Amino acid sequence: MAVRIRLKKLGRRHRPFFRICAMDSRTPRDGRVLEELGTYDPMIPDTDARVTLNHDRVAHWLSVGALPTEKMAVLIKKYGPGGTHVEQNQAARQRMLMAKSVPPAPKPVVSEPPQQEESSAEKPATEEMATEKSPVTVAETASEVTAEPDAAEGESTEPGSA
């Protein structure tokens, strides 16, 4: 049985996510896993924060004779045990875990409408205008709408009118 260290694809469309796994070379890409060794998230903006590896287990599988795929060989060379970017990876992971500082929200501005002083002479005029208007009921508007088409039809149906 030949063991390979490779990426197992998860996630969804337009949002890939990979697990770094030790697998039998005869299993499919997303098949049965011997051991999960870390993760790779290509959507993280900081390149050095994309990979998370368990260095002890990666070293174990490499010592047993597991062969990494081409992409995994690059990631192990950079971020694996004794890799060239291990310190940058740890610093980037720490930056990513730190809480983002969000500025406090500004205090809401409440604008009150200007208050108008009404004189005693204006008040009766507005009250009189309110009493002069009579409310229109639904029945009145319905009778007006139905009355107009009847009158128009009556004029057009008479044969001798012109």
Short description:
The chain is α+β, with helices and mostly antiparallel strands. The chain has helices spanning 55-64, 70-79, 86-97, 122-132, 138-157, and strands at 3-12, 15-24, 35-40, 51-53, 67-68. The protein has a 5-stranded mixed β-sheet.
Model description:
With 162 residues, this protein is of the alpha+beta class. It has a domain at 3-97: Ribosomal protein S16 (S16 Ribosomal Protein, Chain: A, 2-Layer Sandwich). Helix content is 39%, strand content 19%. It has helices at residues 55-64, 70-79, 86-97, 122-132, 138-157; strands spanning 3-12, 15-24, 35-40, 51-53, 67-68. The protein has a 5-stranded mixed beta sheet with strand order 4-3-2-1-5. The mean pLDDT is 80.
* Measured distance between first and last alpha carbons: 105 Å
Question: What profile does the largest beta sheet have?
Answer: 5 strands, mixed
Note poorly predicted spans: none
Helix and strand string, N-terminal first? Answer: EEEEHEHHHH
Structural class determined from secondary elements: alpha+beta
The general outline is: elongated
How much helix is in the residues? 25-40%
CATH second-level architecture of one domain:
2-Layer Sandwich
Helix segment tally: 5
CATH class of one domain equals Alpha Beta
Beta-strand content: 15-25%
The Rg value, from CA coordinates, equals 40 Å
Looking at this structure, what is the CATH superfamily of one domain? Ribosomal protein S16
Mean pLDDT: 80
Give the strand tally: 5
Describe the strand arrangement of the main beta sheet, using strand numbers.
4-3-2-1-5
Which topology of one domain does CATH recognise?
S16 Ribosomal Protein, Chain: A
